[in-house]
Amino acid sequence: MEKKLSVGVIGLWMGRHHLKGLVDKNIEVAAICDINPETLKKEGDLNNIQEEKRFTDWHDLLKIKEMNAVLIITPDQTHREMSEAFLAAGKHVMCEKPLALSREDLDAIIAAANKADTKFMVGQICRFTPAFRKAKEIIDAGTIGDVYFVESEYAHDYAKIMHGWRRDPLRHGVVGGGCHAVDLLRWLVGDPEEVFAYGSHKLLPMVDYDDATISVLKFPNGVIGKVFVSTGCKRPYTMRTLIYGTKGTIICDNTSDHMELYTLIEGDISVNETPEIIPVDINNHNVVHEFEVFAGHILNDTPVAMSALEGAKTVATCHAIVESAKTGKPVKPNYNFG
Ligand SMILES: NC(=O)c1ccc[n+]([C@@H]2O[C@H](COP(=O)([O-])OP(=O)(O)OC[C@H]3O[C@@H](n4cnc5c(N)ncnc54)[C@H](O)[C@@H]3O)[C@@H](O)[C@H]2O)c1
């Protein structure tokens, strides 16, 4: 069992939040890395990281003996190579979503994680978003009865950031961003058995693939669902999510300071038309809690809930949605890896 964590952070754009979280919590930062020297300097200075702990080549972190964990917050296409290398070097790894873009890379990361003696966790951040955690708590308490319909969306305008690695056709909007909504629903109600989807392409002319996709999903236990993904939408970022149960309904998202809970009037079969308003923190990148969970797995040697397989199943569902929109046919996600 590890006694103390000494952490490296690779990729300092989204990763700047992770780094700040570590520094704020007094976690030892063994190294920071970014191929962009200006970003490295900026974040290093902001967080008082010593010069000798700053690197532009991630391979250098492999040699740091005292570093026992690493956070990989770099473009999706780098996740496999870095994860394999750090796991092989005996480090604990937390890697951003989507786990990887291709089936081959998903298989390779699962194999590397299974072989390693260290922990591997995928960073599906919605599982730490306060409103979504509260929704899960309400469902698990049975407050809305038996869930029969779930819907979520990933509506996020990429018009200004659709360049470089994000234009890779493998990084279809459903995989790159839509994986958040898909993962959220998988976490709430299980692995979809079949999906059907339509796509549209009117917003992002710089890519050759759809920028809006609607999918319907058949979940286990008679639950049906819907996921809408738009990566060019003209509205502020949101992941509006509805969960319908036999005794009530939850309406929430990741960008509001409250959620709505509808439940039945006591002793009646009708719903109370005034919802309970539940205040929630707006924290759609709750990287501090995410890290606490990762650290807990390392320090207490517990099985990782957000394992490589979990991350891969989410991407497999996204792949099925993309395939269905292309072929016009229902697709069963393939969860058999390796
Ligand atoms: N959890 C979330 O909600 C969330 C949000 C945004 C991005 N992400 C994920 O985080 C990862 C990074 O996304 P981003 O938005 O920060 O991307 P970005 O392109 O904006 O920034 C990536 C950073 O990593 C650096 N970098 C790139 N290649 C590198 C390499 N080989 N070695 C070291 N540094 C390298 C870049 O210089 C840059 O500073 C992606 O996997 C993305 O899908 C997750």
Largest sheet: 8 strands, mixed
Q: Give the helix/strand class.
A: alpha/beta
Number of helices: 9
Class of the largest domain, according to the CATH hierarchy? Alpha Beta
Sequence stretches where pLDDT stays below 50 over 5 or more residues: none
Considering the protein shown, what is the CATH homologous superfamily of the largest domain? Dihydrodipicolinate Reductase, domain 2
Percent helix, as a range, is: 25-40%
The average pLDDT is 97
Overall strand count? 14
Q: Nearest-angstrom radius of gyration?
A: 20 Å
CATH architecture descriptor name of the largest domain? 2-Layer Sandwich
Distance between the termini: 29 Å
CATH topology (level 3) name of the largest domain: Dihydrodipicolinate Reductase, domain 2
Query: How is the largest sheet built, in terms of strand order?
Result: 8-9-10-7-11-12-13-14
What are the secondary-structure elements, in order, as H or E? EHEHEEHEHEHEHHEEEEEEEHH
Strand content: 15-25%
Features:
single chain, 338 residues, alpha/beta, Rossmann fold, Dihydrodipicolinate Reductase, domain 2, 2 domains, eight-stranded mixed β-sheet, six-stranded parallel β-sheet
